[in-house]
Design a protein that fits this description.
Nucleotidyltransferase, domain 5; single chain; Acetate kinase; 8-stranded mixed beta sheet; alpha/beta; globular; Aliphatic_acid_kin_short-chain; binds adenosine-5'-diphosphate
């Protein structure tokens, strides 16, 4: 059985999925698992495609102190107990910097180049690279593919790519990259089947999960994003504030005496829905709460999605469709209804029954703009890229741009 392993490594967990390669390059999900609680209370859990449990094991803290150890426990379980020996491994890597506009087959040179972008994503990039390095060391013949959250946005023109700062900083890599690119790419590839009429037109995709951003697409390509240099910008998120006057950061440093590491921790973990509500970072809890601060957080979220939609519609010079995706976008009919309310000035109306059913097309019959709900699948996107690079060989490996 030919399989592809997909790895998404973070600071405290390594998520993995296994896809079976069927005829004509079709991929079928077989296993979904994770090693969580790395360095605290490690646990391996895995389920089959239908959600049937395959493993649930706790480990002593010293058995899985870091990401490479988690990778080796997951790998050992896959090899010796499930008999999975993947043809190749695809990795989610948050930052491809200015270099990579598409996935790439990994070798030591690629890893060195990707290490340069640790400074651009210090909380994510080192964890993404750790399993790549450990597989390179232990299984050097297994092909590995790095798939970037930034790559889909490399089609941005210079106006979308710049901040109004001196050019030298742009040349060093201080740019508006945009993230969630694998999710947007999946939606872009799904649109021709789901909504062929609008797939090539002006579309806003709202990826609303615990991380949240929006992408303006024209002709299936990204032209603008709400996120920029880091995944902090744009929409409010579970624990990140979204757009913030840089003066607030200066205030935290000069008036509150916060060091850089403290500010970073604060912005990534204590703000957003959690900070504003003081109740939770989880939209389900906020929607269920009667606490006025929780209500403010929900209102603020919908308001900012609407505000940013206006910005992206301006970038597109019009709008032909709006798409909801990710945890909140796919599951919360309440948030979709509130966002649609914010878009009423554009002629958007919702069909309440279709919205409640989480149907694919949820706009009302007289809506000037169709509104869709499309479940995203970043892992399938990574598996597809991995398989296609495997089949097309190493020739594409050189197709990355130089840093200017
Ligand atoms: P990520 O992959 O960034 O962790 P997801 O796309 O899985 O995030 O989204 C997770 C978020 O989706 C949760 O934090 C939760 O707030 C939200 N969510 C999931 N289901 C629902 C629901 N039924 N109603 C409202 N929010 C939901």
């Amino acid at each position: 059985m030919d399989t592809i392993l997909v790895v998404n490594a973070g600071s405290s967990s390594v998520k993995f999925q296994v896809f079976v390669v069927e005829g004509e390059g079709r991929l079928l999900r077989m296993i979904k698992g994770q090693v969580e609680g790395i360095g605290s209370r490690p646990r391996l859990r895995a389920n089959g495609a239908g959600g049937d449990p395959m493993a649930d094991r706790a480990y002593p803290i010293e058995a899985i102190p870091d990401v490479p150890a988690a990778m080796s426990v997951a790998g050992e379980w896959l090899r010796s107990e499930v008999r999975v020996n993947p043809l190749a491994v695809g990795h989610r890597v948050v930052h491809g910097g200015p270099d990579y506009e598409r996935p790439v087959l990994v070798d030591h040179g690629v890893v060195s180049r990707l290490e340069r972008f640790v400074a651009l994503a210090p909380l994510h990039q080192p964890h993404n690279l750790a399993p790549i390095r450990s597989i390179l060391a232990n299984f050097p013949t297994v092909p590995q593919v790095a798939c970037f959250d930034t790559a889909f946005h490399r089609t941005h023109g210079p106006l979308a790519d710049h901040y109004a700062i001196p050019h030298q900083l742009h040349a060093e890599g201080v740019r508006r990259y945009g993230f969630h690119g694998l999710s947007y790419e999946y939606i872009s590839r799904s649109l021709p089947q789901i909504a062929p009429d609008i797939a090539k037109r002006r579309v806003i995709v709202a990826h609303l999960g615990s991380g949240a951003s929006m992408c303006a697409m024209k002709d299936g390509l990204s032209v603008e994003s709400t996120m920029g240099f880091t995944a902090l910008d744009g929409l409010p998120m579970g624990t990140r504030p979204g757009q913030l006057d840089p003066g607030v950061v200066l205030y935290l440093i000069s008036e509150k005496g916060m060091a850089a590491a403290k500010v970073q921790e604060f912005l990534y973990r204590d703000c957003g829905l959690k900070g504003l509500s003081g109740v939770s970072n989880d939209m389900r809890e906020l929607e269920a709460s009667t606490d006025p601060q929780a209500r403010l957080a929900v209102d603020y979220f919908a308001y900012r999605v609407g505000l940013n939609a206006g910005m992206l519609a301006a970038a597109l010079q019009g709008l032909d469709a709006f798409v909801f995706t990710a945890g909140i976008g796919e599951n919360s009919s309440g948030i979709r209804a509130r966002v649609a309310e914010q878009l009423r000035w554009l002629g958007v109306t919702l069909d309440e029954a279709e919205n409640a059913r989480h149907s694919s097309l949820i706009s009302g019959k007289n809506s000037l703009i169709p509104v869709y709900v499309i479940p995203t699948d970043e892992e399938l996107m990574i598996a597809q890229h991995t398989l296609s690079l495997l089949m097309n060989g190493h020739s594409r490996n050189t197709r990355h741009k130089r840093v200017s």
